[in-house]
What does this fold into?
Amino acid sequence: MSDAAYLANQFLIAMPNLMDPNFFHSVTYICEHNKNGAMGIVINQPVDLTLGELISQIGMKHSPSRFLEQAVYRGGPVETERGFVLHQPVGNWESTLSVTDTLGISTSNDIIEAIAAGKGPDNCLVALGYAGWGAGQLEQEIAANAWLSGPADARIIFETQAEHRWEEAARLLGVDIHQLTGDAGHA
It folds into this structure.
């Protein structure tokens, strides 16, 4: 598989017939994808917890910040106790994977401390857990018509309300997600 065939920095959009409760009507931002598998963050499943509450729960003090009322997201079913921060710009945090020149994902406490102090990145989405696929697994699921993949747009991650992200991600492909069926076409 060529690097161009990998899906990093793309949205994975659940087809309407995908009934797995972990991914029903989900949009996953793919952070890494290679021959060994894929890793992403579900960006449209907020949990009943704000970033301010999370910061307080882990014992950090915080300054006033526009992010404190922001929802924390269920990033996927793997390592659900671990925090992941999708952020823009990439910055210089201790443990960051640069997905693009402008967007990164970090797992270190220094970015949470900076957000709590009002000195964090311009945009962020904090998630607990991630979505992961083993070698070839995601490709098989796409072939089985479980997912659409398409270009990612930071505006959908950081500016679109969570309940509209599924439809908006599909709209980037020119697709009305509600008009799709799960039936694969076979000649």
Observations:
- The helical segments are 51-57, 109-116, 137-143, 154-158, 165-171.
